[in-house]
Design a protein that fits this description.
Elements: E1 10-13, H1 17-28, E2 33-36, H2 42-59, H3 65-73, E3 75-77, E4 89-92, H4 98-111, E5 117-120, H5 127-131, E6 140-145, E7 154-159, H6 165-177, E8 181-186, H7 193-196, H8 198-209, H9 215-224, H10 232-239, H11 241-254, H12 265-272, E9 305-309, H13 317-323, E10 328-332, E11 338-341, E12 344-348, H14 354-361, E13 366-369, E14 380-385, H15 391-403, E15 407-410, H16 419-435, H17 441-452, H18 458-465, H19 467-481, H20 490-495
Parallel strand pairs: 1-2, 1-4, 2-3, 4-5, 5-6, 7-8, 9-10, 12-13, 14-15
Antiparallel strand pairs: 6-7, 9-11, 11-12, 13-14
Helix pairs in contact: 1-2, 2-3, 8-16, 10-11, 16-18, 16-19
Length: about 500
């Protein structure tokens, strides 16, 4: 099947921010659009908000006033639900309540023809459940946009157990025609993005709970080393602690208390305390105060010599940085991968604590450094020292990274430190989603980049780090914590052997 004709009428039920945004997208593609909301005047206000937003594009020269007038003219406010009856596609964008959605979808089905496709913009409710009591469940599909709908490209096209594959294909092609990046997904809790992204928040919340570093330090490392646009704690403050916590609890319950999705006790405590983030004035950050900066180590004595042994693999960029620095470099091609500077022996985290690894390798002055997507570009780097390490070893490690122009953040000695454990958990969940048939490899990468602006898709990221290294981190995390949370996806284990 192909995309719906641009002459086909599209109806949007719900004129809030998301509904108005979807109406704008459909109208921009040339469709006549009907916008309905049960709240009197809401549809007209939604259209006015579209006009206001587009006026900004006119002032910047990105659209002409004529283009805006024509787009807005294609959107009509509806006085009753009856106005949707001639629509080829009806998209429900209302409150996340199963009973209410079912009632609205049943009313829509009764008004429309047998050919009408009924889509839900739900982010958390099962499409199979929404369709279950309808006469034509095969016509029901998820069409999950991301906010702001007019800007973000991702649309998750979600099929329930009874969704006609042809219907899903039509919605996919239609979203593509609307300038979006659609992906197919199976109706499972969280679909793709809200499932995979749980690790991004969860590992940061665990780090705060374990007092690994300050909130600002954790966020700074995730932005600088992980190349994420926002730190996870900063982001949950923006989303709302209550909203993020509710989604986490919903996914956890829907997966029958799978420990992989265990919610944070700390976050639940913040919610009951009313510390909801930016909207309440205080969450992880106090919005009445200046934003705190990361805690960085004091200036250490400069170092002059460094020895690099073996291949550093995903940290090989550090060797290049040393080569282009004023440090005197000795490079030994073979041997246990490490960087020796003064009394310090530096190694990339592999999921073990520095203290455990120091004991196992009989290397008392061990200091671990965290993963960075781009060691040349990152401004900060996290390190953690073994309890056996001397104060001088820590100073030497600090001086080494400072000599490369990095701010050094001293982290508590916990498994996997910060960025590496988070990225590996994102990768693991992405592989598990593919393993369970939620989506394919390509879809999960598109979804995480187009939906939440990750710097890499998790599958592509696993190739950059190396599958063996990812699995090693996960298995060491599971051993250290003794939790099912860190179990390795069977598909990830299988993929290691693909090129053997």
């Amino acid at each position: 099947m192909s995309a719906l004709s641009s002459e086909a009428q599209i109806a949007i039920i719900g004129a809030g921010t998301m509904g108005a945004g979807i109406a704008q997208v459909a109208a921009a593609a040339g469709h006549p659009v009907v916008l309905f909301d049960v709240v009197e005047g809401a549809a007209q206000r939604g259209i006015e908000s579209i006009s206001t937003g587009l006026a900004g594009l006119v002032s910047k020269g990105k659209k002409t006033q004529t283009e805006v007038d024509e787009l807005v003219a294609r959107i009509s406010p509806a006085q009753s639900l009856d106005s949707v009856k001639d629509s080829a596609l009806v998209i429900e964008v209302i409150i996340e309540d199963l009973a209410i959605k079912r009632k609205v979808l049943a009313d829509i089905e009764a008004l429309c023809s047998a050919d009408t496709i009924i889509a839900s913009n739900t982010s958390s409710i099962s499409i199979s459940a929404l369709a279950a009591k309808l006469q034509r469940p095969e016509k029901v599909v998820g069409m999950h946009f991301f906010n702001p709908a007019a800007i973000l490209k991702l649309v998750e096209v979600v099929s329930g157990l009874q969704t006609d594959p042809g219907v899903a294909a039509t919605i996919y092609d239609t979203a593509l025609a609307w300038g979006k990046k659609p992906v197919h997904a199976k109706s499972t809790p969280g679909f793709i993005v809200n499932r995979v992204a749980r690790s991004f928040y969860a590992e940061a919340l665990r780090s705060v709970t374990e007092q690994v570093a300050s909130v600002a330090t954790i966020d700074t490392l995730m932005r600088s080393c992980g190349s994420f646009k926002m730190g996870p704690l900063q982001l949950v403050d923006l989303i709302g602690q209550d909203v993020n916590c509710a989604v986490s609890q919903s996914v956890y319950a829907a997966y029958f208390q799978d420990k992989r999705f265990l919610p944070s006790v700390l976050q639940a405590e913040m919610v009951v305390a009313g510390l909801l983030g930016k909207k309440s004035g205080r969450g992880f950050y106090d919005y009445s105060q200046a934003t705190p900066e990361a805690e960085i180590a004091a200036k250490a004595d400069p170092v002059s010599k460094v020895k690099v042994v073996g291949k550093l693999y995903c940290a090989d960029a550090l060797l290049e940085l040393v080569k282009h620095s004023e440090l005197e470099l000795e490079y030994i091609e073979d041997g246990l991968p490490r960087i020796e500077v003064g009394e310090a022996v530096l190694q990339l985290t592999d999921g073990r604590t520095a203290s455990q690894r120091a004991a196992e390798q009989c290397t008392s002055n061990l200091v671990l450094f965290d993963y960075a997507l781009d060691y040349a570009a990152c401004s900060h780097i996290g390190i953690s020292a073994a309890v056996q390490a001397s104060d001088q070893a820590l100073r030497d490690a600090t001086g080494f990274f400072q000599s490369l122009g990095k701010h050094v953040c001293l982290l508590k000695d916990v498994p996997g430190i910060q960025v590496m454990r988070t990225v590996c958990m994102l990768i693991n969940e992405a592989y598990d989603a593919v393993n369970q048939g939620v989506c394919d490899f390509a879809a999960v990468d598109i979804a995480m980049q187009a939906g939440v602006a990750y710097p890499r898709g998790p599958i592509a990221w696993s190739q950059e780090i190396g599958l063996q290294a990812v699995v090693q981190v996960l298995q060491n995390l599971q051993y250290a914590y003794g939790e099912e949370r860190y179990r390795t996806s069977p598909l990830l284990l299988t993929e290691i052997h693909r090129n053997d």
